[in-house]
Amino acid sequence: MLAALANIFRITELRQKVLFTLAMFIVFRAGTHIPVPGVNASVIEQLFRSGNLFGLLDMFSGGALSKFSIFAMSITPYINASIILQLLKVVVPTLEQWSKEGEEGFKKTTKLTRMLTVALAFVQACGMAYGLKMAINNPGIFSILLIAITLTAGTVFLMWIGEQITARGVGNGISLIIFAGIVSRLPDGLKVIFQYLQAGTVSLLNVILFAAIALAMVVFVIIISEGIRKIPVQYAKRVVGKKAYGGHTSYIPLKVNQAGVIPIIFASSVLMFPVTIAQFVDVPWVKAMGKLFQWGSPLQTTLYVLMILFFTYFYTAVSLNIGDLSDNIKKNGGFIPGLRPGNPTTEYLDKVMSRITLAGAIFLSLIALMPHVIGWVTRIEGVYFGGTALLIVVGVALQTMKQIESMVLMRHYHGFMK
Fold first, then answer.
1. Is residue 89 part of a domain?
2. pLDDT at 156
3. What stretches pass through the bilayer (predicted)?
4. How many domains does the chain have?
5. How much is the average pLDDT of 390-416?
């Protein structure tokens, strides 16, 4: 491993990219400690200790939400804007056309994403400031507006940092910011486990069991995330002039988990809504509804799994157009052995994708429920491990390592890992 790390820093360009990325991480972590003006942070920290819902949201912001810092909303509005635009491609022809225009279309989509991010961030910041007005020193319209503008500016600045990492650093900047926020909570989790050991709440055997389950989950996530179904494609030989083209065999890699982490985000966002409303609305039936949908309740868990299954199929259908895939194979003179081009190929690909998507949906459901299982088996509460966080950390780490590997291979035959 030391030789592999040394291999990175021998390349000047890669060394500069890695150091720039680390510098942006330092800026991000420093910003999580800059408080929003006019807010009593101790009141908000007490509120976030009272429920798993807020603790989960705080983890994705790297602790910035419980401190109510300028980065309290993290990069969430940007992610929401990107997902909304991706879903709108199905119903808005202009967005679909932009996706086919190459670099120029990408610039138009990026500009629209930024504008939508600012709008969503401001609306979310206003709602957050109003909902947490009990923590504002001088509650009023001016104070709420000031807090909303500050939080929006923090999100926009994070968006800029993410774009700078993508352009001048290593990996996808937005993903790495989320990655850094999640990983930064690891020391707090280890501290909680150590406190449990000191207090005698859990035994050393519980901690070893927790570590074994965590390691098994990481391996499981890596296997499924890298899992693909290879569909063989045979390309017919074409003669153009005096040269022959084609005549080779390739394959289409269909991912088992095509939807990624999006279904869990969608499902959790929908189910968090009634619980979030119940936190701020003092009406008996609303409070009863919040208890009914409380995180970990039988109803919430059942709906959580069903929604993950639904959103997995939904987002897979949106992100992967089987019809276009079949048409591209036909246009390039290819065919799947034993199948005619056209409708038979489309039906076959759709059938295969439906089957492996079911496996991916079950995988996502298991990963989403693992935090509850780990807490029940090991009796270690308050340490969130699994679900969205684990998928993001593993996925971002794999993609970043692949990018570094490809950059090293351009200059060293053995690459980053032998």
1. yes
2. 93
3. 112-130, 142-162, 169-187, 207-228, 260-281, 301-322, 356-377, 383-401
4. 1
5. 74
The label of the residue with tokens 């593993």 reads: 394
* CATH number of the domain bearing residue 58: 1.10.3370.10
Binned at pLDDT 50, 70 and 90, residue 52 comes out as: very low
Which tens digit of pLDDT belongs to each residue from 124-165?
Answer: 888 878 777 777 777 778 888 888 899 999 999 999 999 999
Show the tokens assigned to 329: 């194979």
Q: Which residue in the block uniquely carries the two structure tokens 């391996």?
A: 219
For residue 328, the one-letter residue type is N
Helix axes 284-292, 262-280, angle to 10 degrees: 150
- Position 71 in a domain: yes
222: in domain: no
Q: Which domain holds residue 105?
A: 10-184
What's the pTM?
0.79
**With contact defined as beta carbons under 8 Å apart, do 322 and 252 qualify?**
no
